[in-house]
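Field notebook, page 654. I keep forgetting to write these up properly, so this time I am using the form the group agreed on. The chain and the ligand, WTA, are recorded exactly as supplied. Prediction of the bound pose follows.
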Amino acid sequence: MSEESLSASHPTFPADPAFSAQANGTAQMYDAAAADHEGFWAEQARRYVTWSTDFTQTLDWSEAPFAKWFVGGELNAAYNCVDRHVEAGNGDRVAIHFEGEPGDTRTITYADLQREVSKAANALESLGVGKGDTVAIYLPMIPEAAVAMLACARLGAPHSVVFGGFSAEALNTRINDASCKVVITADGGYRRGAPSALKPAVDAALDHAETTVKKVVVIKRTGQDTPWTEGRDLWWSDLMNAASETHEAQPHDSEHPLFILYTSGTTGKPKGIFHTTGGYLTQCAYTNSVVHDVHPETDVYWCTADIGWVTGHSYIVYGPLALGATQVMYEGTPDTPHQGRWWEIIEKYKVTILYTAPTAVRTFMKWGHDIPAKFDISSLRLLGSVGEPINPEAWLWYRKYIGGDRCPIVDTWWQTETGAIMISPLPGVTTLEPGSAQRPIPGISAEILDDEGMPFTEAEKVGYLVLTKPWPAMLRGIWGDPERYKQTYWSRFGEKYYFAGDGAKYDADGNIWLLGRVDDVMNVSGHRLSTAEIESALVSHPKVAEAAVVGASDETTGQAVVAFVILRQEHIEEADEVGEGVDLVKELRNHVAKEIGPIAKPRTIMIVSELPKTRSGKIMRRLLKDVAEGREVGDVTTLADTTVMNAIKQGLGD
Ligand code: WTA
């Protein structure tokens, strides 16, 4: 893309009246929510959720920032996502069209899902899992992942899903932090045309003297040889075959914990973000309805996220299933066995709504628009984007080549912490502005603050995004660490504002543009990674003395991990020898993959002799970012030793 097209003003796209006529979202919702915030949410809670006991108070904010929503209400999330659709006569409706990477398929109706979830709930109960016990789920993208989550929800046993791409180390910390009793995993999954083992990572994660894990349940997906610990490991199929197909769902308190999901923070230790039941389910279903415009009777919806991320939780499991929608679930990568795989899937299932990430869109742009053009993707009627800012060029490409110049695009801003979509256009209502998430959805309030914490509305001025009112799907805390919750989110600008950690600005039309993280969190292909976590992984390698990590902009992945590493004295010569340095870089990259997971592997590792530090010893990442992005190095006056940057640049052959 040329510079010119980047800076040129872009066309905007008013709502198509035909779309508006059928849209779930309406302009009146903004007014209704503004007039009565709590009343609006109470209405959504009763519209989208079936309560066993109605709530008596919409919001209790008396112990802010610890919120209680729909107080006194009782519900069962699994009943809401499964059983009630069967009871309403929709048991034959397809819940999940599963497409395995090797081409195997399964069609799961709501009646099937009810049987599977009931059996799984019985099976977990037979292992002693009950209300309040935590269960770790470490699975590929297979329907059992949704079944396992719903079975936990049914029992009131909070699940902690750990992304299948995370390492044994990462799994170990997460299992221990939440004291999980059971781990549900698989022998492996298919990735890039080959089976990729998962179970060995679980064994390694549990290979510590102290573990709370009593049982490991293994789903057979690939059939590969699987190490086995007698007495601890059990086959999912054996448990399921022995389990009854019926299970009575008990109601749980609206504020009962539904799940924990770990996300990177600014320190090395991942945060266990936890969500509760009633508010979370309400906002997931409401947003899936008004933002993705899901019509459960007619749409075929496809969210391409992995279940290991919050997008998979909210927009594969809880949102669409609460609505009773039909969706596609795909196991593998977009280029297996060919680069048209997604478009082939859309053609095959006549997908109408596609929700994906900008990094995928940019990859498809790189592969060329002639690839989607080979397939009939005219069933699409709405496109969505999530995970990072979508640059206007990618937005316009997405609309033209995937959306056939007719589909509205919803650019949805939210976070693991917010639980559900917060800032997004409403399709059929909003005039779309490519590249901007635009404005808070009805029921949500946001502002942009300056350095002093003062709200402003001036266009093009950059500030910090904050949320100004509690919302139903908000995190209820950090698992086991209430103080960190307050510190991280409710102290930067005082206790009135939820600090999102994102930079933002308004344009002249009052649209909000999200500008990326303002803290030491990187966003690589829509995945949050912390600089501190990767630094400590690098420093844990015996040859490394010190490390600094920055997120450098990258055309495809948004940001890429770039590491600057100082070696321990005794290894410096080794690195100097031709060839050894290359091996060492490879060794360090693999070390990070082992410690955290392949997604955290630095794209580039630069071996340096010094790092730029302030007089107080803080690493000046801004300067390293200049180097990583090939820019002229900025202001160095606050460096303790102003010659360091020259040394780094010279060392890198600049
Ligand atoms: C970024 C993913 C711009 C943002 C749902 C946020 C976005 C972080 C957008 C949360 C968007 C997500 N535009 N930035 N539409 N969506 N982000 O917790 O920096 O994995 O703070 O949740 O992703 O990432 P998380």
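OBSERVATIONS:
- The radius of gyration is 24 Å.
- Residues 110-126 form the longest helix (17 residues).
FOLLOW-UP: compare against the apo run.
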